[in-house]
Write a structure and sequence with these properties.
Low-confidence stretches: 124-130
Helix content: 40-55%
Strand order of the largest sheet: 1-2-3-5-7-8
Number of helices: 5
Largest sheet: 6 strands, mixed
Mean pLDDT: 88
Order of helices and strands: EEEEHEEHEHHEH
Strand content: 25-35%
Distance between the termini: 35 Å
Radius of gyration: 17 Å
Length: 130
């Protein structure tokens, strides 16, 4: 796992095996959202697979949920893999109460990327001659 240097105490980014993981800490409120949104937007433009780990958060309000929803929509709109890692019951309850379950799809632990599908058909034979 490679740590990607950032000069932000509320954001740690690492990358391994095609998956970029952004770990958020602190209080995800209006002030932090304004600060983190450009950083997360840059990660969304660069990464083919992004996991946002919010387990270290001490607080998250509606603005924070809005940022997470923005990230999920942006990732999916460009066909990138999205994962939200959250195991805090109070944040999971907020996600459920706001109806963001399907969009954010929180999971309690970071999971590896799914294996790429096996090629089949004429293209596969051309790329992998026997």
């Amino acid at each position: 796992m490679q740590l990607i240097p950032r000069h932000d105490p509320h954001l740690a980014v690492r990358s391994a095996g095609g998956l970029t993981v952004a770990v958020l800490s602190g209080e995800l409120d209006l002030v932090l959202v304004r600060h983190l949104r450009p950083e997360l937007d840059a990660l969304l433009r660069e990464a083919d697979a992004l996991a946002v780990d919010i387990r270290p958060l001490g607080f998250c309000d509606a603005t924070g949920l809005g940022l997470l929803a923005h990230c999920a929509r942006s990732a999916r709109a460009r066909g990138a893999h999205w994962q939200l890692v959250c195991d805090q019951p109070w944040i999971l309850r907020l996600i459920r109460l706001t109806g963001l379950d399907d969009l954010l799809a929180p999971e309690p632990a970071l999971r590896p990327l799914p294996a790429p599908p096996l090629l089949s058909g004429p293209r596969a034979r051309a790329e992998h001659p026997v």
